[in-house]
Design brief:
Elements: E1 12-17, H1 25-29, E2 39-44, E3 50-56, E4 78-87, E5 90-99, H2 105-124, H3 131-142, E6 146-153, E7 166-177, E8 184-194, E9 200-210
Parallel strand pairs: 1-2
Antiparallel strand pairs: 3-4, 4-5, 6-9, 7-8, 8-9
């Protein structure tokens, strides 16, 4: 909840649930004391799906659902806000991350890595795709200091529980990407996943970045 400190010149939008037994209308409206700008409050019929949390620092922002602590958020560090709500049987989930200061090269690289992984996942997701298996094959090959930055996966045949899967792959390209603040070492792979009957089930194209240590 708000504490005694100078108000900030930023807009605040507040969303609450009428059925929320933990945080009510008056408690939410107290955030009006935190800003010299506009503050709006909108209440929905249902309650919160889970409590909204704000986490700061490299250790806590890496946790998927960290619990709030007494730690004070500092300058030049990441701030993660996680929120969700429930309405008419549907649940929402939204996460936002910001950097309190001017991000350095390392922070920009982390941001880009997460964004590329998210976009690659969105591009690859389709019914029946075994993306996790493909990623594991690629990173097992490339080593512990690697990550998947691009994947394209197809499902040519069914994969059932209990099937014995075999992966075969080859390197089709190596390159250094110098477009960003730091060079990125990329390896392009072609991976084919077969079942125990030697039937091709899942061909994939994957790009792995080798992380400098």
């Amino acid at each position: 909840m708000p504490v005694d400190r100078p108000r900030l010149p930023v807009r605040i939008a507040i969303y609450g649930g009428l059925a929320d037994s933990d945080v009510g209308h008056d408690q939410l409206l107290a955030w009006d004391e935190e800003t010299t700008s506009d503050c709006t409050l909108r209440m929905f019929p249902d309650g919160n799906f889970y409590g909204t949390t704000a986490q700061g620092g490299p250790a806590r922002t890496a946790l998927p659902h960290a619990q709030p602590s007494a730690r004070i958020i500092g300058k030049n560090e990441l701030l993660l806000i996680d929120m969700g709500a429930a309405l008419d049987g549907y649940a929402s989930d939204m996460t936002r991350v910001m950097f309190l200061g001017r991000p350095n090269t390392r922070i920009k690289r982390i941001y880009r890595a997460v964004l590329e992984a998210q976009l690659a996942a969105i591009d690859a997701v389709r019914p029946g795709v075994t993306a996790g298996f493909v990623d594991r094959i690629a990173t097992d090959f490339a080593g512990p200091y690697s990550r998947v930055v691009r994947r394209r996966v197809s499902l040519l045949g069914p994969i059932y529980a209990g099937d014995s899967m075999v992966a075969r792959g080859r390197v089709v390209g190596k390159r250094i990407d110098t477009a960003g603040d730091a060079p990125r070492y990329l390896v392009d792979l072609e991976i084919a996943i077969f079942n125990q009957r030697d039937e091709l089930c899942c061909p994939a194209e994957v790009t792995v970045e080798l992380i400098a240590t």
